[in-house]
């Protein structure tokens, strides 16, 4: 049993209402379960395969879900990087291993299922790339048409390719992501299209399962949970999920929620570090990590609560620090991620250098999207392949043998 409730004024709404913010005060909504009526045990969950749907008692979907087998992603112990940083308990949860290569699939399996459950006939989103790739795939699976709005020229190649190939109507606007989101919100409200950005509280329900899985894989609550922050939905979702586990008595403490942004796009970091009551939007965000090139995060209010209520923190990393960590993850750990994803681990490195982290902490960094999402940024950082004549002599010569 669940209802929608406003995170600000507490007004409650029936689950079937197609609303994204509180009609009374305009603030964000959340899905609230009556935890007393949830009778599942941790043992029951443990007997099911690791996946978003292992946790179905804490998800709002009552129909057969639109699924591409999302979740169940690996949790890697970063042994080499951890040793270099003096962090023996450093882990990465590789969300790039989801069906379309990012954590968005956890949200979309729930979001597109809810679209069908609520009788919606079409779906839409604005995107820096991954949301559109995921929505396009899940809409295809669910048999609903999808419209996606992208900031022209600022979306990584792999993501555009996915949205196009899965058959979404792809529209590139001559402005940034924040404007695309404003436009698509208006479009959806005026034309009865189901909005599947993270302002949709049901979509975030799927994303909270990243934290559930991490706790199950680690066998305990990490001391710190680190996420790259763009629109700030993921950090909010993870915190909400962990609160629910606490409410059910499955865990007895919360990790320090830690958000990492790019130096050129860091409104949440500025609010946290400046102890501001709310996030001040940034008008011209810029970073090589295009996935988190977002100046006006819609979930800022939820994210600030997550960070502040858990004694967490936020940090900004430069593009060079992001790319350097992308290379380190690839070359020292064999983990291929896109730039925004490397930001979480780069942020931990920075916090270690600042002396802000206890080295014995058990730290889970969420690495959010796959290396192949943004091949152009990869190619720019690497030497070209060595082209030779097809002879043994030429081969031995370039190998200095
Ligand atoms: C790869 C990647 N990492 C991180 C983020 C940031 O997540 P959020 O917007 O939930 O803060 C996004 C998109 O939002 C993303 O695509
Ligand atoms: N990085 C995101 C930006 C949109 O965020 P959302 O969580 O509100 O959908 C993307 O991949 O588009």
UniProtKB/TrEMBL annotation:
<comment type="function">
    <text>Catalyzes the gamma-elimination of phosphate from L-phosphohomoserine and the beta-addition of water to produce L-threonine.</text>
</comment>
<dbReference type="GO" id="GO:0009088">
    <property type="term" value="P:threonine biosynthetic process"/>
</dbReference>
<feature type="binding site">
    <location>
        <begin position="230"/>
        <end position="234"/>
    </location>
    <ligand>
        <name>pyridoxal 5'-phosphate</name>
    </ligand>
</feature>
<dbReference type="InterPro" id="IPR036052">
    <property type="entry name" value="TrpB-like_PALP_sf"/>
</dbReference>
<feature type="binding site">
    <location>
        <position position="368"/>
    </location>
    <ligand>
        <name>pyridoxal 5'-phosphate</name>
    </ligand>
</feature>
<dbReference type="GO" id="GO:0006565">
    <property type="term" value="P:L-serine catabolic process"/>
</dbReference>
<comment type="pathway">
    <text>Amino-acid biosynthesis; L-threonine biosynthesis; L-threonine from L-aspartate: step 5/5.</text>
</comment>
<dbReference type="InterPro" id="IPR000634">
    <property type="entry name" value="Ser/Thr_deHydtase_PyrdxlP-BS"/>
</dbReference>
<feature type="domain" description="Tryptophan synthase beta chain-like PALP">
    <location>
        <begin position="66"/>
        <end position="369"/>
    </location>
</feature>
<comment type="similarity">
    <text>Belongs to the threonine synthase family.</text>
</comment>
<dbReference type="GO" id="GO:0009097">
    <property type="term" value="P:isoleucine biosynthetic process"/>
</dbReference>
<dbReference type="InterPro" id="IPR004450">
    <property type="entry name" value="Thr_synthase-like"/>
</dbReference>
<dbReference type="GO" id="GO:0004795">
    <property type="term" value="F:threonine synthase activity"/>
</dbReference>
<keyword id="KW-0663">Pyridoxal phosphate</keyword>
<dbReference type="GO" id="GO:0030170">
    <property type="term" value="F:pyridoxal phosphate binding"/>
</dbReference>
<dbReference type="InterPro" id="IPR001926">
    <property type="entry name" value="TrpB-like_PALP"/>
</dbReference>
<keyword id="KW-0028">Amino-acid biosynthesis</keyword>
<feature type="modified residue" description="N6-(pyridoxal phosphate)lysine">
    <location>
        <position position="104"/>
    </location>
</feature>
<protein>
    <recommendedName>
        <fullName>Threonine synthase</fullName>
        <ecNumber>4.2.3.1</ecNumber>
    </recommendedName>
</protein>
<dbReference type="GO" id="GO:0004794">
    <property type="term" value="F:threonine deaminase activity"/>
</dbReference>
<dbReference type="InterPro" id="IPR026260">
    <property type="entry name" value="Thr_Synthase_bac/arc"/>
</dbReference>
<feature type="binding site">
    <location>
        <position position="130"/>
    </location>
    <ligand>
        <name>pyridoxal 5'-phosphate</name>
    </ligand>
</feature>
<dbReference type="GO" id="GO:0006567">
    <property type="term" value="P:L-threonine catabolic process"/>
</dbReference>
<dbReference type="GO" id="GO:0003941">
    <property type="term" value="F:L-serine ammonia-lyase activity"/>
</dbReference>
<dbReference type="Pfam" id="PF00291">
    <property type="entry name" value="PALP"/>
</dbReference>
<keyword id="KW-0791">Threonine biosynthesis</keyword>
<keyword id="KW-0456">Lyase</keyword>
<dbReference type="InterPro" id="IPR050147">
    <property type="entry name" value="Ser/Thr_Dehydratase"/>
</dbReference>
